[in-house]
Design brief:
Elements lengths: L3 E2 L6 E4 L18 H7 L23 E8 L2 E17 L12 E7 L7 E9 L10 E15 L6 E8 L17 E10 L4 E6 L1 H9 L7 E4 L7 E6 L10 E9 L6 E4 L5 E2 L3 E8 L11 E10 L5 E7 L3 E4 L7 E10 L14 E4 L5 E4 L5 E2 L4 E8 L7 E10 L4 E8 L3 E4 L7 E10 L13 E5 L4 E4 L6 E2 L8 E9 L6 E10 L5 E6 L3 E5 L6 E11 L13 E5 L20
Parallel strand pairs: 15-21, 23-29, 31-37
Antiparallel strand pairs: 1-2, 2-10, 3-4, 4-6, 4-13, 5-6, 5-12, 6-11, 7-10, 7-12, 7-13, 8-9, 8-11, 14-16, 16-19, 17-18, 17-20, 20-21, 22-24, 24-27, 25-26, 25-28, 28-29, 30-32, 32-35, 33-34, 33-36, 36-37
Length: about 575
């Protein structure tokens, strides 16, 4: 098959036949059945379909060392670098970003429903992380996979490659946004309309990237943008089928024979699930002039000192979140590094980095309080514990609620197990609840109801009991009067001397009705007119303390002896006319 090559010999694209796979026998399987697949998936707007069986070209999106060959004081490596970012832009949708699209597109799309117009593909590979700057680049081949084309049976489309001179982001790039400046042309090639892999030689460009002669901002591919339906669709890194764009680079470096070193950073004795594990490493850069730098790390863990389990196979990151922890289990971690020359650190079989997972919060509750507290201070205490084997209680949070209103924070991050609350209001009922927080941050859920409750009585209190019935109407045993009763409390060591009873009619002015030592009074209705009567009572003890008069209704009764009569539906505030 012919190859279209720029005279600069820096860029070319050609479809791959079976004989061209010899270079990748350590990684790739032969593409059997590519023609059949082409007939089934030649629709450019179809969603990419993962290939099956022998058609699976790559199983994961990761850096790979394909081969290492020693040659005297030099080492020759062949590696695979996955695309770092890829996307395309479309003149027909100039403000749309396609950074998460499963496809890359080149050419011109004129057919509905999705009219993309002219389309250009952008690619970038992180070469610097995997190839040392002193490496000799023997060859660099990029590979991509065609998933669709129009029109059917179209001759190969000419493609121009351009070096990019500015940084860009696949997550923001659009046709109308600030795009990277085009650098020089790096070559031409062509893309067929058949489904399958294509590859191009960009050895010269990768040499420039590694040496620093040109900054590595990636490349742009531009096809036939004549306004007609003619396009090529290729898989992007988001296709999820392993057919992402990649670089196969063959290079030679000085013989770095010293393995790198990495270790897991210390972990706390206890951890909440999930938790972060981090590690550090070096490649003896200060002592070995041939050091090539760390290419990636591998991380393993075990449970309770058992068998080691692969956690992270190849990563350039130096931390990750571990989310598989079970309560009361101890996890150990170890890491090893592999440098760019392929030297592999030996596993450490006796790691000291471990942590015990605690996922269960403490269980704490308030100790009971007396029904009445005869002071404006309330002595609180609580007890509880963390779960067996847990990290232990770090602190407590305490809240209170007054007269069933809203919960208010009393204490935060408090380490004691008792506290005296001051400033309590006479006659108010206070509820309290507590929660424990352990040393890894597990929080006990708040109780929905008070765990302890008390009513404050630091001076006399008297409250009128509600009437039953609430309506005095014809048929009552005695329609001329009603008995008013009340409850009362006073601090220990004191006694109530007398009560003062007040009433009002139809929300009018309050009137002092009587002073009495009894806890009841027979109230005679002063008029035969229909009316609402409200009552409030105060108490005075022998310490000359008096429950203050607030002018607030404690109980009420409706006098309704004359028509119109109120029909009692439920005990709600009554509205009536006084004719």
């Amino acid at each position: 098959m012919s190859q279209f090559t720029n005279p600069l010999q820096r860029f070319s694209i050609r479809p791959v036949t079976a004989g061209m796979f010899l270079l990748l026998t350590a990684l790739l399987l032969a593409m059997v059945g590519a023609s059949a697949t082409a007939q089934e998936n030649n629709t450019p707007d179809a969603q990419p379909t993962p290939l099956n069986g022998d058609d699976i070209i790559a199983a994961s999106h990761e850096f790979k060392i394909l081969s290492i060959t020693e040659d005297g004081d030099q080492r020759k490596l062949e590696i695979e670098i996955p695309v770092t970012q890829d996307t395309f832009t479309a003149s027909g949708q100039p403000n749309t970003n396609f950074g998460l699209d499963a496809s890359l597109r080149i050419g011109y799309n004129a057919d509905p429903p999705t009219v993309y117009g002219a389309m250009r593909t952008f690619l970038q590979w992180d070469v610097a992380s995997f190839i040392p700057s002193n490496a000799i680049i023997n060859s660099a081949i990029f590979q991509m996979w065609v998933s669709g084309a129009t029109p059917a049976g179209d001759p190969p489309m000419a493609v121009l490659g351009r070096h990019l001179a500015d940084p860009w982001s696949a997550t923001t790039l659009t046709w109308n946004s600030t795009q990277p400046n085009w650098g020089s042309e790096i070559g031409t090639g062509s893309i067929p309309s058949t489904i399958g892999m294509i590859q191009g030689d960009i050895t010269g460009l990768v040499r420039d990237w590694v040496s620093g002669a040109n900054p590595n901002y990636g490349v742009m591919l531009q096809g036939d943008e004549t306004q007609r339906e003619r396009q090529r669709v290729l898989y992007s890194q988001n296709a999820g089928n392993g057919l992402y764009p990649r670089l196969i680079v063959d290079f030679t470096v000085s013989n770095d024979t010293t393995p790198p070193y990495a270790s897991v950073n210390g972990l706390p004795v206890y951890s909440k699930n999930p938790f972060v594990v981090s590690w550090t490493g070096h490649d003896n850069e200060g002592s070995d002039p041939n050091a090539t730098g760390i290419a990636y790390y591998q991380v393993q863990y075990n449970v309770g000192g058992g068998s080691w389990v692969e956690w992270i196979n190849q990563t350039t990151n130096t931390s990750a979140e571990f989310g598989s922890g079970a309560n009361n289990e101890t996890y150990q971690f170890r890491v090893r590094a592999v440098d760019r020359a392929g030297n592999v650190q030996s596993w450490d079989n006796t790691p000291v980095t471990q942590t015990k997972v605690d996922t269960v919060p403490p269980n704490v509750t308030m100790n009971s309080l007396p029904e009445y507290t005869f002071s404006n201070t309330i002595d609180l205490s609580w007890t509880g514990s963390d779960n067996p084997g847990g990290s232990g209680i770090a602190y407590y949070d305490v809240q209170y609620i007054e007269n069933e209103t809203v919960w208010t924070t009393l204490l935060s991050n408090y380490t004691g197990t008792s506290y005296t609350a001051t400033g309590a209001s006479n006659g108010a009922t206070y509820g309290f609840r507590v929660r424990g927080v352990d040393n890894v941050g597990n929080e006990q859920p708040w109780s929905s109801v008070p765990q302890a409750e008390t009513t404050v009585v630091n001076q006399p209190i008297a409250i009128v009991n509600q009437f039953d019935p609430l309506f005095i109407q014809p048929g009552n045993p005695d329609p001329t009067q009603v008995r008013v009763t009340w409850q009362a409390w006073t601090p220990p060591g004191t006694a109530i001397v007398f009560y003062t009873l007040y009433y009002r009619v139809n929300n009018g002015a309050w009137v002092e009705l009587t002073q009495t030592s009894s806890q009841s009074y027979d109230f005679v209705f002063p008029s035969t007119d229909n009316a609402e009567y409200d009552f409030e009572v105060t108490a005075t003890n022998n310490a000359n303390q008096t429950d203050p008069f607030n002018g607030q209704t404690e109980a009420w009764v409706i006098y309704n002896m004359n028509p119109p009569y109120i029909e009692i539906q439920s005990h709600l505030p009554a509205v009536f006319s006084n004719d």
